[in-house]
Amino acid sequence: MNDMSFNSEKTDRGMQELQRQELTKRRSVGNEIKAQAVNYNTAGSVQCPYCGTVNDPDAMFCASCGKPLGMVNCPNCGAELDPDADFCEVCHHYIRTDICSFCGSRLSGYEAFCPECGSPRGGIVCPVCHTLNDFSFCKQCGTALTDEARKLLAELQMTPEYKEMQALAKELQELDMQLPYANEKDQIREQLNNKLRERVLTLLAQDKGFTATVVEKPSKRIPKVELDRKKNDCVNRLAELLEKMAQVPQPQAAKVRNYAMACKPQGVRLAWECNFKHALHSSPCGCAKPQMGGKWIVLGKNSRQEIKDDK
User: Fold this and answer.
1) What angle (nearest 5°) sits at the alpha carbon of residue 159, between those of residues 158 and 162?
2) What does the pLDDT look like over 81-98, one tens digit per residue?
3) Where are the beta strands (DSSP E) in 183-275?
4) What's this model's pTM, rounded to 2 decimal places?
5) How many domains does the chain contain in total?
């Protein structure tokens, strides 16, 4: 009786094991069928590299997270571009037909002028340097070309930061024009020349019967070490202000371009460092995705740093 019970339990355990194996096998087959069905249904679809959502084959942005799904081609030169780029850095053309390049407003069709700011789609010729521009500030000389740009520039010029930047740029320009003392002998030579000048002017005055009243001419020249220190102080302070006024990412590329161009101080060589590729541009007008933000950096007179769109 005990042997029969033992054999019965053994048989039951064996049957349960067989059932588990059969169930596992069926589940495996079912998963394979489901995977094949998913692959069949999503054939040609695009999977988002950021969140994994499966999107339609012709989708440019993810329906879930909104991130770009792949590259597109420039309609002018065929170069590959990010889907959210509005400017081709290869052929230097603005490529969006649904967004005004001057103010960032949406365009419904192929209007000749933007209904929001009134700017022409074909661009504006700068009245100063005669360059054709797709944006609110001239990419060549920085002149404000639209009413919105001129208003923004006037507002920023009244800020303490802009006034200090412009003063520093002027001081740096004057320091670049100065001829420093190369060494101590150079300084002694200039002192002797000043004494000779005073002597000649005194003799000329006496020869004409005038009382010699020679005004001493103070020299603006300083030792090279001191001149370099002053330049570095100006550059460092200017860099601090430019960093403070750096453009943060925002949806509209036109707003970033306009603000950056309005912030640019005149009289000093700068480059726009974009957050997109961390490349150097002569201005944000040459960046494909200025909406990612960026900042102006000081290049200096003898800088060898390459500017991407100056070639």
Assistant:
1) 100
2) 988 899 999 999 999 988
3) 270-274
4) 0.71
5) 1
